[in-house]
Structures are given as structure tokens and as C-alpha cells.
């Protein structure tokens, strides 16, 4: 098991956003978190990446308890997040943005190899290598954010709403790339509003409602679950 959350609770001041979440991600999997707005999906990601401290419960990653570990040290251990809302550096070029993703690493030949890998996954980024990040289209910025997260060569890639704001054709494309990244050996934990795509691509998924996990199963099981269909897939 690569990642395990046990009974994790998290609060923003007095607002409790997670009420005892338990979930696991095995090495090699794509696991999706789905749920309505405000269900706690992004908060769960923040707990894993260390951007918010947990109130109780524990998080272990790659055999180590990381519950209280600083976020930057988690990146070094192999957890990398591509945040919701992209969060790229607008004044830096595409290439510089990607280089920033490798800031914890020192091995230049390895970094160059990973740059080539990212350019292979996203040819658009290669074409626009020198363009400043802020002038890229929404979809391109999304790709840049995913590419940057890959530059730390993570064992676990956390993707928060990778399809947000993308045109339908680009949504297909970004999910194809996520599957490819996974097939190249990176484990993926994914938050998505687009439950249809997420469930059809994920090995397993969890359904969150108001800070609690209410259902889990394989992507295919949940895709055919009547309650999930009704609530999240827009078909009865
Ligand atoms: P969405 O899909 O809308 O982003 P989500 O499932 O990712 O939703 P979260 O962003 O994790 O939901 O939010 C869970 C709860 O925590 C919500 O009630 C939200 O209002 C609250 N919350 C999130 N961030 C903060 C914050 N910085 N301060 C206070 N409350 C917050």
C-alpha cells in the first residue's frame, strides 16, 4: 500500500471539513475521489500533501507516518500535487515553470530526461517552451500544472480537478494523458467533478459527502451504481 489515511479529520477554524476519512491507494493505481461541491475532496488532497494540518487520524505514505511531516518534505518523499486552479507562475516561461517543479532535485541529466518526458506527453508545451505561463490558454495552463507536478518525479501524483474549465475534446485528452502517466509507473489520486470520466478511467474510487466517505468500489462498479448515477452522472 502506497498511501493510507486512517480516520482523518480536518477543520478550518471551527468548520470541520473531514469527519474521519479512511482510504487507501495501492502502488500502480488510479484512485478517484468524487462528490458534490464542498464534499471535502480538495481538503482530502490538502491533508495528503500537507497543506493543512489534520485534527486527528493518521496518514502513512510509502511505509512512513507522514501525518505531521512538512509539505516540502512530502514532495521529497514522492508526493506531488497539481493544485486546483492551476497555480502556475504566470511571469515565468513554460520551461521555467517546469524547472520549478524539479526544485528539490539536483541531478541535471535526470531532470533533462524528465523534461523530455513531459514534452513527450504534452507536445504543446514543447512548442510553447519559451512562452510565459500567464499567456497560455486555460487548457495549456492545466497541462503545464500537471507537467510541473511530474517534474518532481513523484511516486504519487495528486491531481485536483484536472479537467476543470476544459473543452470536451481537451477533457478526453487530459484523461488519456493521466492514464499514460499511470501506465508509465506513477500512482495517481484524482479529484474530479467530472465523475463520468474519472470513474471510467480509475481503478477504484471513493464517494465523499459532507466530509465522509459514503461509498467505495471499482470505477466500473460505481459507474453502474444507481445512486451514483442519479447523484453524480446526470442520468437516472
Ligand atoms: P469543490 O468541488 O467545490 O472544490 P470540495 O469537495 O473540494 O468541493 P472542499 O474544498 O474540500 O470541497 O471543501 C470542504 C468544506 O470545507 C466546504 O464546506 C468548504 O466551504 C470548507 N472550506 C474549504 N476551504 C476552506 C477554508 N480555507 N476556510 C474555511 N472553510 C473552508
TrEMBL record:
Residues 3-235 form the ABC transporter domain. Gene3D superfamilies: P-loop containing nucleotide triphosphate hydrolases. GO terms for biological process: L-amino acid transport. The keyword Transmembrane helix does not apply. SMART domains: AAA. GO terms for molecular function: ATP binding; ATP hydrolysis activity; branched-chain amino acid transmembrane transporter activity. Belongs to the ABC transporter superfamily. This is ABC transporter ATP-binding protein. It comes from Paractinoplanes ferrugineus. The gene is livF_2.
